[in-house]
Write a structure and sequence with these properties.
single chain; alpha/beta; Urease, subunit C, domain 1; TIM Barrel; 2 domains; ten-stranded mixed beta sheet; five-stranded parallel beta sheet; 23% strand
């Protein structure tokens, strides 16, 4: 049972908004008897009002109530700042045993020559995108960034069961041997400035001289500023860290992928101590963790091994919520449960008294409910189906049902049908560890 968290002084009761459905969106409801976890404070026994897809406030009731209870915590839905959604297939593909890469380029060749890539070729691009979407959904992720050019992912992102970012500019990497995504660093960055979007690129993903000049390349192109989300950054020098801090850029830390490919990761403690905004990403499962919950555990373990100290659970929580929102220029909308923000919520079982430690240790089977802009996309049928009657559940068009750790869960879409289609395409009962439901 969780310890009694900080209690908020009750506000005067206001007239309860009426709950109704319009185009699949719930107009108003309230999470009640809820412990709501944010970076700024923990609100105990709270009532959190959701209206029009946004958080309206605390201490307000609604005719439709969603009781959470003391056995769970309500978090902002998690944010995965770096994924390649069409690349989430298993097993991983990496260097020969006992060897590691100098930069990302040989890995790309190894991937495309591998049996798993040939097996994956039997699936449609649409199937691959849905797999990536469900990898994120089942780990409590409400928003994910798919690091591919718009012309490649635009047809698929709207059909995903989670929110995939569409407001971004990008490069693949800052080197002569990158994949030439986008219209070039200068043009893409100028577009990001004009639109107030993030500019996202892999950077210094390797140790050859050109890879390790990534910050210099951006600086000379006048493209190093607060809009930048720089992925991997394993080649950073201390001078690079200072330049990135002065520019106000963010770093996407993907430790599992880094260790698998290079046997090390970025200088994360120096980045944090310098005040650089660091967010956590999974990369694809071809090199990274199976999902963001696993990545969080790996990040804590590797930090302990690198520095002989713990990465605070609250810092880890911030990396997948407010830090990630800032990196994607969504800080007014995502990564928090505060008035005006999207009502993106992830409810996890309370197995620890400390809400931050609880999330750091959470598993897929601990996820009870996930909402995106107030709409439930996944939930424990026994606990939440009645509260969301007429809005979400297996009886509603566009929803299915799965069983996870013995619990019947409603879910947006048909992940079981997707899984059956994958197995039919490859000709055997393929196992994908990020799909936790029973078949």
């Amino acid at each position: 049972m969780p310890a009694s968290p900080i209690r908020e002084a009750g506000k005067p009761k206001q007239r309860a908004p009426r709950a109704s459905a319009k185009d699949g969106r719930l107009d108003a409801y309230a999470f009640t008897d809820a412990t709501v976890v944010t970076p700024r404070k923990i609100r105990g026994s709270a009532s959190l009002l959701v209206e029009g897809g946004r958080v309206t406030g605390f201490g307000l009731g609604a005719r439709r109530e969603v009781r959470v209870g003391a056995e769970a915590f309500v978090y902002p839905a998690l944010i995965n700042v770096h994924d390649h959604l069409r690349g989430n297939y298993l097993p991983r593909v990496g260097p020969p045993e006992g060897r590691f890469y100098e930069n990302w380029s040989p890995w790309d060749s190894d991937l495309k020559a591998s049996p798993v890539y040939a097996e994956r070729a039997g699936l449609s691009v649409g199937q691959m995108y849905l797999l990536g979407g469900y990898k994120n959904l089942f780990s409590g992720v409400g928003t994910v960034n798919d690091h591919f050019p718009h012309e490649l992912n635009d047809p698929y992102l709207p059909s995903l069961p989670v929110r995939a970012m569409r407001e971004y500019c990008l490069a693949h990497e800052c080197s002569s041997f990158d994949l030439k995504w986008g219209d070039g660093i200068e043009i893409e960055h100028a577009r990001a400035v004009e639109r107030d979007w993030p500019f996202i690129t892999h950077l210094e993903e390797g140790f050859d001289p050109e890879s390790m000049d990534g910050v210099g390349i951006l600086d000379r192109a006048r493209a190093l500023d607060e809009r930048d989300l720089l992925v991997h950054c394993i080649g950073f020098s201390e001078d690079d860290i200072k330049k990135v801090k002065r520019a106000g850029a963010s770093v996407a830390w993907c430790p599992a992928s880094n260790y698998f490919m290079f046997n090390l990761t970025c200088k994360v403690r120096k980045l944090l101590r310098a005040g650089v905004n660091v967010a956590l990403g999974t990369d694809s499962t071809h090199t990274g963790s199976v999902n963001l919950l696993a990545e969080m555990k790996f990040a804590r373990r590797v930090y302990r091994e690198m520095y002989g100290e713990e990465l605070p659970a609250k810092t880890l929580f911030e990396m997948v919520t407010v830090n990630a929102a800032r990196a994607l220029r969504l800080e007014d909308r995502a990564g928090k449960l505060e008035p005006g923000a999207w009502a993106d919520a992830a409810v996890f079982k309370a197995r620890s008294e400390d809400p931050y430690e609880n999330l750091a240790a959470a598993r897929c089977e601990d996820l009870e409910l996930l909402t995106i802009e107030g709409v439930p996309v996944y939930g424990d049928e026994a606990k939440y189906a009645q509260a969301f009657e007429g809005i979400a559940g297996p009886e509603i068009a566009g929803y299915g049902r799965v069983t996870v750790a013995g619990r019947t869960m409603f879910v947006r879409g048909d992940p079981q049908g997707l899984y059956r289609g994958i197995r039919a395409a490859v000709g055997f009962p393929k196992r994908l560890d990020y799909l936790p439901f029973e078949m």
